[in-house]
Amino acid sequence: MRTYAGHSTAEASNALYRNNLSKGQTGLSVAFDLPTQTGYDPDHILARGEVGRVGVPVSHLGDMRRLFQDIPLEQMNTSMTINATAMWLLALYQVVAEEQGADITQLQGTTQNDIVKEYLSRGTHVFPPGPSLRLTTDMICYTVNNIPKWNPINICSYHLQEAGATPVQEIAYAMSTAIAVLDSVFASGQIPDERRGDVVARISFFVNAGVRFIEEMCKMRAFGRIWDKITRERYGIENPKQRRFRYGVQVNSLGLTEAQPENNVQRIVLEMLGVTLSRDARARAVQLPAWNEALGLPRPWDQQWSLRIQQVLAHESDLLEYDDIFEGSHVIEAKVSSLVDECLAEIDRIQDMGGALAAVESGYLKSELVSSHALRRGRIESGEEKIVGVNSYESTEPSPLTSDLDTAIMTVDPAVEARVVAALGQWRTTRDEANDRQGMGDPLVFPSTAQAIERLKEAAASDENLMEATLECVRAGVTTGEWAWALREVFGEFRAPTGVSSAPVAVTAEPGTPLALVREKVKRTADELGSGRLRLLVGKPGLDGHSNGAEQIAVRARDAGFEVVYQGIRLTPEQIVSAALAEDVHCVGLSILSGSHAELVPDVLERLREAGAAELPVIVGGIIPNADGEELKRAGVAAVFTPKDFGITEIIGRIVDEIRTANKLSPLEISEVPA
Fold first, then answer.
1. Beta strands of 183-251 (E only): which ranges?
2. Which of 272, 273, 313, 373 shows the greatest Cβ crowding within 10 Å of its Cβ?
3. Measured between alpha carbons, how far is 555 from 589 in angstroms, rounded to an integer?
4. How many other C-beta atoms are found inside a 10 Å radius of the C-beta of residue 301?
5. H or E element that contains 373
6. Helix axes 167-187, 364-382, angle to 10 degrees
């Protein structure tokens, strides 16, 4: 039983963990901030506004010590949601455990370490697919040989569903990732054939459970059936215990609503039941989001509520006392069999392309996800797919839970970032002195920071396992950013395909439809401005890689007749403004879900003013509290959109209105379009 937690600083997160453990939580699930996830130190330009926002900043060994102070790691089961920098964080964890006197062979926990889904959904990738797979391979081999109770990878279909995956896509893409990883591990020569079963036994999965209860339960049964088939037939694993499908779950956050957020509680319970009722496919670990995640950062009380939901199910109900209650159901078996057949066909299709990494590089996987998400959004907007409180049953009594929105969520003190940056500077100024003292100046006893980094580069340029060189960097005081930059120098960086250009039209545009009306509005406005076509720049400043919303806005704007400039994720305000000026756009749309809007959006506005483009309208979308939204409007933002604004076609229409206002054109109402 876990709650996904971490924020502000290592000290604050340590206090939160110890408090949660005292309430009956049975494992830790660590959320790292975006600079840590993407290999930047907190004083890097891209880290501005992101430090401590969506997780805890861990820049070096000192931070890791403080994060787990007074928590005996040998007795703990720790899940770390970390991917591109997973090897680095595991090395930090191991060294802290050693300092506590722990036997590292007894350490238990999980590193997510699934980079494929980062290219497709969360966007915290750093290196190209090949080197990323090598880091994963080296880590798996190291843990199997040295930390045998550790789960070195958590193949993660959770975020695929968040990015629009159907159950078939979720299973097929996750299994294709598992095949790519296992093929790489066994081809590396680091694991003898007789230990293949030990590798397979340490592979775990992290899945999403949506509100479509029957479908989700059948999905999990299909997952287990397919994993058993692949591990037995492709890899020759005879021991059924080693072939067991081991998975944890976080129930769906995509379906949590800002409108009537109290409805999220019953959604969370239903989603949890989908992965617990079916004993033969029951989750080994469950973590639940908080009811108010669509509003902002949950408070400790909100996290406690989610923990109590699990405890009531486990200790008050009789759910865990019976065998599988769905065994023999013709309905369930038919659905599971159908999913298995469709998934195996899609897995074969991906293998014919060269496997999961080839399908990432070609853009196939991303394009399919953007397309399926666009179709889902279209169903919601048409009312075909109903969401209570959003597009149906919208009238509501005032909610006492949100009567004061400014206190219904937790906020991170903006001064935290400055304190973290100052502490990092202090660490850098003292670490070499400590190294020289401990090693007596002998680099073979205790290498300096610079020597450890050079050693890492040499290892990266060879074919040796990178874990030992990474551990040397940890002990030498190297920072997260320094470790990642050393590998960037050898491996390079990677910008993943966006999938926007190939997405199909997801909503109808026949005469009289909302999209047709907006298309006409776009055309007439462009004609009045004499610009040929209206141009919209969709930008994601900072490190927030959750690009689903930005992609859907880009796709719908394209379908409405805009020329869309979308360059993907991880841009500085300077890069966004430069692109806006170079492309001569009519509007800049910024998408931020990480909470860094208060720092990054005003920076974009100021740079536009300095460039003489103050009249260019800027709109913002994301998880933005009401008070912050009003502050952004006072700073000059033309419009702010949050999850409650689910009508994308309507949003595109409002963007046209803002363009007209900025260009002093009269309001334009179009009620019908000629056939």
1. 203-209, 247-251
2. 373
3. 13
4. 9
5. helix 364-382
6. 160
Rounded to the nearest 10°, the torsion over CA 449, 450, 454, 455 is -30
Contact 356, 350 (CB under 8 A): yes
Helix H segments across 530-636? 548-559, 573-582, 597-610, 626-635
Average confidence (pLDDT) over 610-635: 94
CA angle (291 as vertex; 286, 292 as ends), nearest 5: 130
By the 10 Å C-beta count (0-12 exposed, 13-18 middle, 19+ buried), 321 is classed as exposed
Q: Which two tokens stand for residue 443?
A: 């680099």
The predicted pLDDT at position 504 comes to: 66
First-last CA distance in the chain: 58
Q: How far apart are CA 566 and CA 209, in angstroms?
A: 31
- The H or E element containing residue 522 is helix 514-529
Q: Under a CB-based contact definition with an 8 Å cutoff, are residues 587 and 537 in contact? A: yes
**29 in the Ramachandran plot: left (φ > 0), alpha (ψ -120 to 50) or beta?**
beta
Cβ(498)–Cβ(566) below 8 Å: yes
CA separation (Å) from 559 to 97, 176, 517, 518, 563?
54, 32, 12, 10, 9
Q: How many whole angstroms separate alpha carbon 121 and alpha carbon 251?
A: 17
Instruction: Give dist(CA 148, CA 471) in Å, integer.
Output: 17
Per-position DSSP letters for 285-352, written without gaps between them? EEE---TTTTTSBPPHHHHHHHHHHHHHHHHTSSGGGSS-TTTT-HHHHHHHHHHHHHHHHHHHHHHH
Residue 60 to residues 12, 38, 99, 559, Cα–Cα distance (Å): 16, 14, 15, 47
Give the chain's mean pLDDT: 91
Do 556 and 504 form a contact (C-beta atoms < 8 A)?
Answer: no
Q: Return the SS3 of 619.
A: strand
User: What's the rounded Cα separation, in Å, for the pair 588 and 203?
Assistant: 43
Q: How far is 482 from 605, CA to CA, in rounded Å?
A: 31
Helical (H) or strand (E) element with 267? helix 263-274
- DSSP-assigned states of every residue in 113-125: ---HHIIIII---
Active site residues: 4, 158-159, 540, 544, 546
Query: What mean pLDDT do residues 76-83 have?
Result: 93
User: Which tokens go with 509?
Assistant: 């545009």
Amino acid letter for position 611? A
CA-to-CA dists, residue 386 to 353, 380, 563, angstroms: 36, 6, 31
Task: Check residue 391 and give its pLDDT.
Answer: 87
Structure tokens given for 225: 């059936």
288: region left, alpha or beta (phi > 0 left; psi from -120 to 50 alpha): beta
- What confidence category does residue 643 fall into, taking pLDDT thresholds of 50, 70 and 90? confident
The residues near 624 (Cβ < 8 Å, ≥ 6 apart) are 592, 597, 632, 640, 642
Tens digits of per-residue pLDDT, 421-479?
Answer: 999 999 999 887 665 545 444 545 668 899 999 999 999 999 999 999 999 999 999 99
Alpha-carbon separation of residue 24 from 13, 15, 19, 427, 653 (angstroms):
17, 15, 9, 35, 50
CA gap 180, 140 in Å, rounded: 13
Q: How far is CA 82 from CA 55, 124, 460, 650, in A?
A: 11, 9, 20, 36
pLDDT at residue 644 tops 90: no
CA–CA dist 308, 268 (Å, integer) = 12
Structural tokens at position 593: 């879900």
